[in-house]
Amino acid sequence: MPFDVVIVGAGLVGASLAGALAGKGLEIAVVEPHPPVDRPEGWDARVYAISPGSAAFLHSCGMWPEDDARIGRVETMRVFGDDARSQLTFDAYEAGLRELAHIVESGSLQRTAWDRLAAAPGVTLFPGRRCERLDVAADGARLALDGDAVLETRLVVGADGARSWVRDAAGIGVEARPYHQMGVVANFATARPHRGVAWQWFRRDGILAWLPLPGDRMSMVWSTSEAHAAELTALGAGELAATVAAAGHDMLGALEVITPAQAFALRLARVAALVRPRVALVGDAAHNVHPLAGQGVNLGYRDARALAAVLLGRGPQTDCGDYALLRAYERARREDILATGLATDGLKHLFNNDSPLLAGLRNLGLACTDRLAPVKRLLVQHAVA
Question: What distance in Å separates the CA atoms of residue 229 and residue 318, rounded to the nearest whole number?
């Protein structure tokens, strides 16, 4: 077999898996129909909250961006209920950490990962190519690409996003439920310094988060109804800045738009299985969760870490597509994926609900949790993994 592993999709998660396996005696192929372009001069509208555990993983893969001046750090997070009184605070220093998360631009992560793969030993890139057919046999798989190329491999990894071609070709079912919400993102200059604080407000019109960028800048993520998202994205720069500032109780003073608002659809998705013979799924191909806790990409990075550990820890007589080996990966990831999906979905429905009884309970729960140090420590430990 020419390849031990073929990874379809070189987004953040697929690229990190390839980086973790590179130079370890395996022949890796990476198929990516849309390789990243050069990063623009300005700021990306889309950013990710990268946990310390994921950051350490990316460092180990050589995929952490070198430009530290473009990376924000969350040292404190303040979460507010929708009664203007209840709140929950997480502090990195109380947890014995330097930061709770790194705020990193999407394009910076993508470009760094692609450049690393281009020079990685044992990695062959197939940029601009699309998959056309997948054939699985007992001893391996054949993946046909456009242009008549056929890749023979022991294992095919689907890292090709929420509408995964690999998942469909392998016959893995998915249960998807749209939230009928959009995530609206934009970046702003701020009149007052954020001091490394991230804010999140549970509001009747959705969930608003402000994430600290370097300098006096912040990135907004507003998970809201499709109608409200359309209104926000149609606003002029001045109106958008004033609306976002008011929604955040002017915590950072007057705002100025750096990047125009963009919106993306939100949904919950659960797959019937993470693996099939000679096939494994990671990242958005394996699960979609609500972004309210910023855990989506970190969940994917934990997939890549787990699959890399299983593949690199296999015995000398076991090939990378061995079904028992892949089942070990699935078992290792099942609890984390289920727990994160249930938690984010439950919080979304709890706070996007007009029931007076639930309103009292959710805000009481938020306030009580803030007083329970052991519970807060457990929440932080999971979030930073």
Answer: 50
User: 68-106+179-267+351-383: which CATH architecture?
Assistant: 2-Layer Sandwich (3.30)
CATH 2.160.10.10 assigned to domain 3-42+109-176+268-348? The reply is no
In sequence order, the β-bridge partners of residue 175 are 270
pLDDT in tens, 303-345: 999 999 999 999 888 999 999 999 999 999 999 999 888 777 7
Name every residue whose Cβ is closer than 8 Å to that of residue 171 and which is 6 or more positions away in sequence.
Answer: 276
Per-residue burial over 295-331, b if 16 or more Cβ lie within 10 Å, else e, is bbbbbbbbbbbbbbebbeeeeeeebbbbeebbebbbe
Local structure of 194: helix, strand or coil: coil
SS3 of residue 128 by DSSP: coil
Q: C-alpha distances in angstroms, 212 versus 107, 153, 188, 194?
A: 17, 43, 10, 6
Closest CA to 252 of 202, 193, 295: 193
Q: Give pTM, 2 decimals.
A: 0.93
**Residue 152: other Cβ atoms inside 10 A:** 15
Q: By mean pLDDT, which of 47-61, 162-176, 200-214, 289-303 is the weakest?
A: 289-303
Whose structure tokens read 């998915």? 174
Q: Which residue type occupies 284?
A: D
Half-sphere exposure of 327 (CA within 13 A, CB side): 4
Q: Where, residue-wise, is CATH 3.50.50.60 in the chain?
A: 3-42+109-176+268-348
Beta strands in 139-293 (DSSP E): 140-145, 150-158, 174-190, 197-203, 206-213, 217-225, 255-271, 275-276, 279-281, 287-288
Nearest to 7 by CA among 149, 107, 127: 127
Residue 117 parent element (H or E): helix 106-118
